[in-house]
Write a structure and sequence with these properties.
Blueprint lengths: L12 H6 L1 H13 L12 E5 L2 H13 L8 E4 L12 E7 L5 H12 L3 E6 L2 H10 L3 E3 L11 H15 L5 H19 L5 H9 L3 E7 H19 L4 E5 L14 H7 E7 L5 H14 L5 E6 L5 H22 L8 H11 L4
């Protein structure tokens, strides 16, 4: 833990966050134990179901695996799977709790449509249904305190399963390289004056606007945004290059006197950027610098897209915990999310 670790951490998020390298290794082992997988020629498309911290599993798969796969991948963050889901579909339903209502409903529809289903979950209704349906289950360890600290446990098993089916050759090599980088980054993040401390200090009480590039950067930027929301209980927003150069940049022409006090731009950079996207970062930053409180750049390290994505995620996770610590906030409880979930479960209007 860094010297700036929070005085209050009722659910052990710091320890779980910094345990990401070991979590990834354990996830590989868990996925290797699964059987009843469909054959390579039986899969025409892959669909990942998930919401929130579980839903980002699909974004990781899109960034790290989809470019190498011979079949299309779709991520569904909602109640209804695509109409084309059927006997040629491999559907991976991901829910930390197992009771995420959107995912349970979508998984049920996919199963009834004849899809090959795999469940990645820590318990609840999805685990019960996986037994009833006799479909493969990758268990998420119960010792992990929150879904937002289970990125490795949930995102790595689908990559391993796809390699075993023959749809993502070389996954294990990319995972091994990711573990190496995560260990290296963790060592850095436990020293004073590290990149997370410097970034959190520069964000301060401003609102972070996180920009990433392409699928890898989009997944990382979304992760940063969500972790700051959940851990620091603070607003944060994200967008992705090159799309933002076609719209968002035009929206900063007004109200600079206000945004200059309120918003910090965080650019997440990685080695797989298209050359024109790298230029877009420079051009957009030049425009936005005039209306931002500060501009911070965080660059990914590691070999391969998966390593760089998880590297950025780990830095962002620690930034979010430091932002919580600086305000004396316990990063664990999220009463607003819990209240909405409870109201929906109770049928409140």
């Amino acid at each position: 833990m860094t010297e700036s670790a929070p005085p209050v951490d009722s659910r052990g998020l710091w320890e779980a966050t910094l345990g990401l390298p070991e979590q990834v290794e354990a996830a590989v082992e868990a996925a290797q134990q699964v059987d009843q997988l469909p054959g390579h020629d039986e899969v025409e498309n892959v669909v990942v179901l998930g919401m929130g911290d579980s839903g980002i599993v699909g974004d990781v798969l899109i960034a790290a695996a989809a470019p190498f796969m011979p079949v299309p991948v779709t991520v569904v963050k909602g109640y209804v799977p695509p109409d084309y889901v059927g006997t040629g579909s491999l559907v991976i339903a991901v829910s930390f709790s197992g009771d995420t209502e959107e995912t349970v409903e979508a998984a049920t529809a996919a199963y009834e449509a004849g899809a090959a289903l795999v469940v990645v979950s820590g318990g609840g209704e999805l685990v019960r249904l996986s037994g009833e349906w006799d479909v493969p289950l990758v268990p998420v360890p119960v010792k992990i305190p929150e879904a937002r600290t289970a990125l490795g446990a949930m995102a790595v098993p689908p990559l391993v399963l796809l390699e075993r089916i023959g749809l993502f050759p070389g996954a294990q090599q990319w995972i091994d390289q990711a573990v190496t980088q995560l260990q290296r980054r963790r060592d850095q993040l436990t020293r004073p004056g590290n990149v997370a401390e410097l970034t959190a200090r520069r964000i301060g009480r401003t609102i972070p606007l996180v920009h990433g590039a392409q699928d890898l950067g989009a997944a990382a930027a979304l992760r940063w945004k969500c972790q700051i929301n959940l851990n620091a209980k603070a607003p944060a927003f994200w967008n992705v290059h090159p799309e933002l150069c076609h719209n968002e940049v035009a929206g900063w022409g007004q109200n600079g006197d206000a945004t200059r006090q309120l918003v910090t731009l965080v650019n997440l950079r990685h080695d797989a950027e298209h050359p024109q996207v790298s230029r877009r970062f420079d051009l957009a930053t030049e425009v936005l610098r005039e209306v931002m409180a500060d501009v911070v750049e965080v660059r990914a390290h590691g070999e391969g897209d998966l390593a760089q994505l998880l590297d950025l995620a780990l830095v962002g996770d620690v930034v979010s915990l430091l932002l919580a610590a600086h305000e004396g906030i316990d990063p664990g409880p999220v009463p607003t999310v819990d209240d909405i979930r409870a109201a929906l479960a109770g049928g409140a209007g």
